[in-house]
Amino acid sequence: MNERDTCHPLSGDGHLFQHHAAWVKLLDMERGRTRIGTNPKINSLASAAAPYLTRGVELNDLLAALVDTIVKNLDADRGTLYLVEGKARRVTSIIAHLPELEQIRLNLGEGIAGWVAQQDQPVRTDDPGLDERFNDTVDKKTGYKTTSMLTVPIRDTGGRVIGVLQLLNKKSGPFTADDETPALELAAQAGRVLECTSLYAELKQSPIGGADDEASAGPLTYRFNQIVGESDAMQRVYGLVEKAARTDASVLLTGESGTGKELIARAVHINSPRKRERFVKVDCTTLPEALIENELFGHEKGAFTGADRTVPGKFEVAHKGTLFIDEIGELPLKLQGKLLRVLQDREFERVGGTTTIQTNIRVICATHRNLMDMVAQGSFREDLYYRIRVVPVALPPLRDRGRKDLMRLVEHFLDKFSRRHGRPISRITDEALAALSGYPFPGNIRELENCIESAVVLCDDAVIDESDLPLPHVRRRPTASAAGGDGLGDPDLSLADVERLHIQRVLDAVGGNQSEAARRLGIGRNTLARKLTD
To answer: Could you tell me if 301 and 353 are in contact, meaning their C-beta atoms sit under 8 angstroms apart?
Structure first.
């Protein structure tokens, strides 16, 4: 079995962050191979963070786990995590043991938390009321009496303050100097954890735009770790993910290739009661038709030539967890009936077997195809279609998510790949941003990700210009046709010319992958090969 097809709580999706030194160090701590600091209690922070870091979990769950662990370790009554919004020049409480208030916002320098963020120095006080920096507004609003406080900065590995950790009212008496060292060590670990989240790109100084850029000055926006975007279209998706995660209902994810269907599927799983069990993936496009049945259902010893042992299928491997069937539209018609039985009765037999096997799974399916059209054509079972789409989730193409989501994603990928390849990017030019904003990205987020990684690797002087972006110029060059788009309606182009142009552009969008291009064009690979040589 391919290791990337399964996901355990502590193994994570290692390919996402295996190159990040911060994540590697956290994993080392979790495995007990290293120790940071002298306090034997503080290593539990890595354990609290590990199940969340590389998954589409709600970020508030991750941040709450950090604060709860720190509060417990330092015997505090309450704790607050502030994040520094450098673009807005303020600190915002993201997680706080303050049920009376939803959020606290302070300008840099305001209150003790704002002072710590601005001055990058810890503050310990036995009587906050006597400290002129103390802002008693929160106490007045909540009725909570702060009698002692320990506030320390949270820094990234580059030493920049990205947050503030504030602990209130130590249970066994005032905070002492002996509490500062473990608090600073825990804050350092919290900084490394934040660097491993998709939120970090919003906390660091962005190379995108200036003060007037719409993506530069807004409030922090986040929902799920590793899933970036806060447009209305994505908010609708997040709402459906939260509803679906609370149940075992089948989910059908639809949308163009590259829109992030697998990330959303993982978000449903990791935010569900099944999150500690396996997430197992099977891609119907990567297996020959003759092997798909064996992949899903397994086989008994002697079922066919070469079957020298019994092999469990994905339905067994995913028992108690989630099975993600990608590109369900490619599932052969004769296997659709067997899948329907599993969904209805939660039982099946292995290939070559007679013993009925019970399975307790949650099934999530995804496709870029129009299954209703396939139902009408007789290539997809109608009863199966309605069985898998109990919760339908349509993912929007990147071009429909707006410029703000695009810029957030650019920031995220710049941060990810500049750290992976050791190439910090100081600036991305206005011309490059204009090119990104004006390009339709038919390959969606996957194409954008590959585009930004290439630009990070190939740019000169840590500045990304338009020429560094591997965007097919033929698709951005305006045409002289009266119709104004891609040659359609141009009387000088034959129908065959338009078809060849479209095929070539689809190939460009998928990086020359003919199998992927054929799937997106809705034709067979042999047909595509023939058209390329005609």
So the answer is: no
Q: Is 365 helix (H, G, I), strand (E, B) or coil?
A: strand
- Quickly tell me which residue has 């991305």 as its tokens: 428
Per-residue pLDDT tens, the chain, 534 aa: give them: 443 343 333 233 333 333 334 444 444 444 443 344 445 555 556 666 665 555 555 677 778 888 888 888 889 998 988 888 766 678 887 766 665 566 788 888 899 999 999 999 999 998 888 889 998 888 888 888 899 999 999 998 888 898 999 999 999 889 998 899 889 988 888 888 888 777 787 776 667 754 334 444 455 556 677 788 889 999 999 999 999 999 999 999 999 999 999 999 998 998 899 988 999 999 998 888 778 888 898 888 888 888 888 889 899 999 999 999 999 999 999 899 999 999 999 998 888 888 889 999 999 999 999 999 999 999 999 999 999 999 999 999 999 999 989 998 998 899 889 988 999 898 899 999 999 998 999 999 999 999 999 999 999 888 999 999 998 753 433 333 333 445 566 665 667 767 777 887 787 777 667 777 888 888 877 677 667 666
Say how far residue 59 (Cα) sits from the centre of its chain. 10
This prediction has a pTM of: 0.68
Inter-residue contact 450 to 263 (CB < 8 Å): no
List of long-range contacts for 129-134, beta carbons under 8 Å, 24+ apart: none
User: What is the phi/psi pair of residue 308, to 5°?
Assistant: -90, 0
Gap between the Cα atoms of 395 and 257, Å rounded: 10
**Contact status, residue 150 vs residue 166, Cβ threshold 8 Å:** yes
Angle at 502 between CA 498 and CA 504, to 5 degrees: 115
Sheet containing 76-85: order of strands: 105-107, 90-96, 76-85, 161-170, 149-155, 123-125
Contact (CB, 8 A) for 161 and 117? yes
DSSP letter for each residue of 274-320: TTTS-EEEEETTSS-HHHHHHHHHEE-TTSSTT--S-EE-HHHHTTT
The whole-angstrom separation of Cα 255 and Cα 269 is 19
CA 279, 282, 288: angle at the middle one, nearest 5? Answer: 165
Q: Tell me the two tokens of residue 7.
A: 């996901």
For residues 54 and 409, what is the distance between their CA atoms, to the nearest angstrom?
A: 17
Can you tell me which residue has the tokens 């992976």?
420
The answer to whether 122 and 153 have CB atoms below 8 angstroms apart is: yes
Neighbours of 531 (CB within 10 A): 15
DSSP designation for 479: P
Nearest-angstrom CA–CA distance, 343 and 360: 10
Which phi and psi (to 5°) does residue 169 adopt? 55, 80
DSSP letters spanning 383-436: HHHHHH-SEEEEPPPGGGSHHHHHHHHHHHHHHHHHHHTT----EE-HHHHHHH
Asked if 419 and 20 touch (Cβ cutoff 8 Å), the reply is: yes
